[in-house]
Give the backbone structure.
Amino acid sequence: MSHQQEDDADYMANEYEMEAIDDDMDDEFHGRDIDASDSDADEYDYMNNKMQDTSAAEARRGRDIQGIPWERLSITREKYRQTRLEQYKNYENVPQSGEASEKDCKTTNKEASYYDFRRNSRSVKSTILHFQLRNLVWATSKHDVYLMSHFSVIHWSSLTCSKTEVLNVSGHVAPCEKHPGSLLEGFTQTQVSTLTVKDKLLVAGGFQGELICKYLDRPGVCFCSRTTYDDNAITNAVEIYNTASGALHFIASNNDSGVRDFDMEKFQLSKHFRFPWPVNHASLSPDGKLIAIVGDNPDGLLVDSRNAKIVSPLCGHGDFSFASAWHPDGLTFATGNQDKTCRVWDIRNLSKSVVALKGNLGAIRSIRYTSDGRYMAMAEPADFVHVFDVKGGYEQEQEIDFFGEISGLSFSPDTESLFVGVWDRTYGSLLEFGRRHNYTYLDTII
């Protein structure tokens, strides 16, 4: 991936800002007088955000799910959507890769509905550090989600509509526990590029190769490590998993072409694999035997998790890949690419992908399966999340349509909730959706 960070925020801002269509909005949507105090501003922001949150009931009555007052703007939602589709510039490392991939893509029915809108929370400001890395939202239950907001890791409870700061990396962060291999001096002003949370463990990866680990049920940080001191050190992705014996580990994918496995029982690096190109994402199969590796090469790799021996190349994408995820059955997995496609692979025949699924605007930067394997969601850089019916052979999808850069998406472990982080200076928020259930057995008693 690109390791030039300086223009990332500007790239996203130039590509997309809702402020560009907000000229007709009242001053109340853009701030207060310059003489207002910080405390007044905080109180105002809190009240303003609370008022601008959108509930499911309000959405059913016709309110825009993001609270955008289209009736007061000089452009309709439909017209602005069309403009976005025509003008959005997909970032590519291989020119015209998106156009070249279209011929392989499956035509799907987009009329399905699997997850219903529940709430848009404007008081939760989800942010992005690097425009190519979008794994910054993680749900640990149907009511609990963790996300990055500037220099803070925030816990949001959708049950109480309240947020709590879990970790602040704007200053000095150092481990309060002593473990072999831990960097006891810690870090200062860590820029978090990726995040993961599972089994009460939070792991944040930084732009300079930092790794910060914190158990949510313990005070302070438990472990700090720097993967490398190379200039090209950014941590692109982290994934937590349990070994066959139940030990807690995590995998870190880095721009120095390395994939590292850390044992969190011993707080030590246990494996270090090197590849020919920067690794943007690595995901372990459910049985722990295989790792899907994607990065700065159109072809991915499926490797043996014990020794990184190549099982098979993954040929079909036209650009660099930034996402991967395994289906719970361990037989299929998906990869997301800057050629605007997500490809699904079957380990029983890796000569070509099983299916190629197309986005609308740009790269597929995040992929998640539900824990029951019924649905797969893929996120574009902005505006669209697609939820596919896996059991139905990816023939049908729900297309979730909104406006804003996507910082990440996450299903809850019980599959009941889907959270989507939206980064925008005006309409940044956390979108929440709930799984739709058809209780047909109730019809028999009516």
Observations:
- Confidence is low (pLDDT under 50) at residues 23-51.
- The CA atoms of residues 35 and 427 lie 24 Å apart.
- Residues 85-433 form a domain with the Methylamine Dehydrogenase; Chain H fold (CATH 2.130.10.10).
- The two ends are 57 Å apart (CA to CA).
